[in-house]
Amino acid sequence: MQTANPSDSSPAAPQCAEFSGFDGQHPPQQSLIDACVHCGFCLTTCPSYRVIGKETDSPRGRIYLMDAINKGDVPLSPTAVQHFDSCLGCLACTTACPSGVQYDQLIAAVRPQIARNHARSLPENLLRRLIFSLFPYPDRLRLLLAPLALYQGLRLPQLMARTGLLKRLSPNLGAMESLLPPVTPQCFQDNLPEVVPAQGERRYRVGMVLGCVQRVFFSGVNEATARVLSANGCEVVIPRSQGCCAALPAHQGESAQAAALARQMIDAFADTGVDYVIINAAGCGHTLKEYGHILQDDPDYRDRAIAFSAQVRDVQEFLAQVGLTAPLHPLSDRPLTVVYQDACHLIHGQKISLQPRQLLRQIPKVQVRDPIDAALCCGSAGVYNMLQPEVAEELGQMKVKNLVNTGAELIASSNPGCSLQIQRHLQQQGRALPLLHPITLLDKSIRAEKLTIS
Asked: Which class would CATH give 190-322?
């Protein structure tokens, strides 16, 4: 089995043009750059532009910059890198663009160029090594659970919040600490068997990806997902050898690490005979569907990667497609208002927006509301809220204000990063609004388990 080394990095390739700031290993395609007509429709949808207010921190501005670097007019300088780093990769601009500019492919090409050709400062490098050496590896995360539980038990997070000490020492570490979810006994081990049988007649045999942060800190969502799939006629296969989906390193240009993790995932499901591979986290799902791109230079895995991605379905996408067969029961004796929060890599990356709402509306007495600016990023964006905490802070405040202003009694969120970001800002704003994954709500409805909403 292939394993990932977080210190892996792709070798620098020859320069594609004499004065180009990008090397010859998949630089941004000039044809994709030229597709931009500079109309500006992307500006109001771009979260970094909304917060920073500079043209150079917008999709259009970054495309101008890519063009100039591609043509050798400007170098890949620290200033240029700063403008690329400010991009959340939320892909809202791809949804808004009337010309169909594939900005997702452009920024995905730039990130590895930066990783190979730009020398970051020592603090930046140390922070990134910490993130990429830790978060994609559940077993490593679990080694920290006991000290984290002690840290939380001594109420040190409250002290840090009051004094702002860690934030003053390092805004990045302060942001990371403030996002820590509660450590519970369920965090320490995987509780799902390798095969969960279908209830009643088997309709499908599906594989299930557990994720990394989801696997450790949101294991209840994984258990609910397995139960919902089983209750709707799916035999669920959960290979023990699976690892990270590669989303975190892929989104930050760590190409070698992302490729190694993608190979490991493909190998894990290779002989399972599943009809589909199911994922319940938005960012993971988008990356799983991009394996053909991540492994495009690997002749041994390229075709396997394309075939694997063709099997991948977000759990809500899958259930809406095949239909629910399990009876649903009310979650409350009275009507329950739920606001659905669109995760960027669902609505923009995978074009999945109606399906979660359709599923929620099938639960008796549930009313679904939408916030204003529903498609605006919450600021999580993988590890963006740790790398760019100031911009993420403002976006988180905006998102929570919009969700709360709907008057809903509960938030439904389909991505662990979004959930952590929103819960943090709910707490900061003194709001006690509960937040659950839509699949958790479906699970409770199937099991006729009532919610307690104060």
From this structure: alpha beta
> What is the pLDDT, as a whole number, of residue 177?
87
Rg (CA), the chain: 22
**Cα angle value 269/128/51 (rounded, 5°):** 105
Q: Which residues contact 126 (CB under 8 A, 6 or more apart)?
A: none
Tell me which amino acid residue 327 is. Answer: P
Q: What share of the chain is helix, strand, coil (3-state, %, to 5)?
A: 50, 10, 40
Contact 186, 220 (CB under 8 A): yes
Q: In what order do the strands lie in the sheet with 312-314?
A: 195-196, 234-237, 204-208, 276-279, 312-314
Question: What is residue 432's predicted lDDT score, i.e. its pLDDT?
Answer: 85
Strand stretches in 131-250, DSSP E? 195-196, 204-208, 234-237
pLDDT tens per residue, range 445-454: 999 999 987 6
The rounded distance, in Å, linking the Cα atoms of 332 and 441 is: 11
Q: Give the residue extent of every domain in the chain.
A: 30-117, 122-184, 190-322, 336-446
Q: How many helices (H) does the chain have, and how many strands (E)?
A: 26, 9
CB-side neighbour CA atoms (13 Å) of 433: 29
pLDDT at 454: 67
Three-state DSSP class for residue 204: strand
Q: How far is CA 321 from the centre of its chain?
A: 22
Residues 34-81 have pLDDT tens digits of 999 999 999 999 999 999 999 999 999 999 999 999 998 999 999 999
pLDDT in tens, 12-38: 443 443 445 899 999 999 999 999 999
The H or E element containing residue 59 is helix 59-70
Strands 234-237 and 195-196: antiparallel
| Same topology between domain 30-117 and domain 190-322 | no
| Domain 30-117 in CATH 1.10.3430.10 | no
Tokens of 265: 């995932």
Domain 336-446 = CATH 3.40.50: yes
Residue/partner pairs of 350-357 with CB below 8 Å, 24 or more apart: 350/282, 350/285, 350/286, 350/289, 350/314, 350/317, 352/314, 352/316, 352/317, 354/320, 355/314, 355/316, 355/317, 355/319, 355/320, 355/321, 356/316, 356/412, 356/414, 356/438
Distance of alpha carbon 238 from alpha carbon 9, whole angstroms = 30
Which residues on adjacent β-strands are paired with residue 369? 339
